[in-house]
Amino acid sequence: MMSRSNMTKTGLFKLAALPLMMGLSSSAIAEQENQVKPQLTPCYAKGLDDRLLCGSIKQPVSDNPADGEIDIHFAIIPAIKPSKPEEAVIGFAGGPGQSATELAAIFDRNLRYARESRDILLVDQRGTGKSNKLQCEGVDLISQFELNDLTEDMDIFAKEETQKCKDELNTDLTHYSTVAAAKDFDAVREALGYKGLHLYGVSYGTRIAQEYTRQFPNSVITSTLDGVVPMQQSLTAIGKAIDDSMNALFDRCETDANCSENYPNLKANFYKLLEQLDDQAIETTVRHPRTHKKINLVLTKMKVFSTVRMALYSHTTRALVPLAISEALNGDYSPIVGLLSSTDMMDSMAMGMHSAIVCSEDWPSLTDASRADHGQAYMGRMMIEGFDIACPIWDAKPVDKSFYEPVKTDIPTLLLSGGLDPATPASWAEMAMVEMSNVKHLVSESATHGVVSQTCAANIVGKFIDSNGSEELDATCLEKDNRKQFFMNLNGVALHTDSGSESSEKE
């Protein structure tokens, strides 16, 4: 749910985880035994010292043979001690638009306990990574910094950029929906000979995990959904989650002795800054965050809000928000520049695939009522406007209405939510679980987006998988407050905190 450019409507639109065997007839079993398994070759992933095994299979692009085939690439992180060779844990990447194999180091860390006895399977969803990545030439960081979205006709700009990307890709995005992709994942499972999978999805990855469960329930042993996106929910509802997470940060600063002393009236000052930028952009010169060369920066309301929004995802960047707001009001934009540069996701996100998902699944589900509701939040309104511009140009066929029905399953399912999540709040998990009869929902009140990556939940997930969801889980460790101290100045955090404020110890 991120963007390659957080400063245009196009950018906001782009932003915007009981063993059963598949029933086979005797002829199908014979056909499977005669099937040539995909060739596996040794490979390596960034950030991992361990050797992986990589391969690919061919899948039809659509039901029409004339549309040809697509190579679906995958990587296997071998089990430490493969005592469960017929099972694997499959990791579904988020975005939508991220490559699972490129995130191998993160999946390895998040699933380190499950890997002790089972392979970790990572499949690049069609349209991402090496599976025919749908990526267009992006706007470089300097151009993003220089763009003035107050003076440009952004509707025309967004239409031109979308049409340019569509022409460049020359691909029918209808074939890259979540529904189509689910079949690829099961084809990889079958080709590799795994009889059952433990699913682990994060963010958008929870949507593909749910759709996979719906289509191939006999292939699923357990399912862990981390930062849950309900099938019933359009991503434009994210605006309220952003506002709630932002207000939680402002409230904490107000009750933290050091923060309230250094940044009095933080919330009011944030909206004061936005108001100043609403009609008049600030033009200044800053240092490029990587080359340190002087470059031009045009600071606008959209850029500031989008930058703070993305900072809410991590405790490290959340800790910088009060300083960035305060310094910007005083004319020092270096903290904002640091946060702004960290939101550039152009290289890691396949924006064509991202568009395929939101235009076939999220945009068509919008009603007059949901538009009015989601549009009350600034980011929700910007996303809807972006969808309305880009999706008619992409012309992706909407998914069937049955796609939006909650998944009905008795498969052991673990839902994880962060109390400070600016994208997928705990209420979304409650919405997703209405038809799940064998489900546990755990909330870490101090976590943001992606509970496993920032808490003790990796161990919990490992035990959940090892017991096939039958073991009673001890989740008391999720109560630990893992927030970080706010930065009090450019040199770092405060050396001393108010003893009466527990939350001032961490953020």
From TrEMBL:
State what protein this is by name: Proline iminopeptidase
Principal subcellular localization: cytoplasm
Q: What is its EC number?
A: 3.4.11.5
| Domain AB hydrolase-1: residue ranges | 114-228
Name the Gene Ontology biological process terms. proteolysis
Q: Which family does it belong to?
A: Belongs to the peptidase S33 family.
> Domain of life of the organism in this record?
Bacteria
Write out the annotated subcellular location.
Cytoplasm
Decide whether keyword Hydrolase is in the record: yes
Q: Which organism is it from?
A: Pseudoalteromonas phenolica
Q: Which reaction does it catalyse?
A: Release of N-terminal proline from a peptide
Keyword field? Aminopeptidase, Cytoplasm, Hydrolase, Protease, Signal
Query: Which stretch is the leader sequence?
Result: 1-30
Name any one GO molecular function. aminopeptidase activity
Q: Which InterPro entries match?
A: AB_hydrolase_1, AB_hydrolase_fold, Pept_S33_TAP-like_C, Peptidase_S33, Pro_iminopeptidase
**According to the UniProt record, what class of enzyme is this?**
hydrolase
What residue stretches are annotated with the Peptidase S33 tripeptidyl aminopeptidase-like C-terminal domain? 379-477
User: Gene Ontology terms, cellular component aspect?
Assistant: cytoplasm
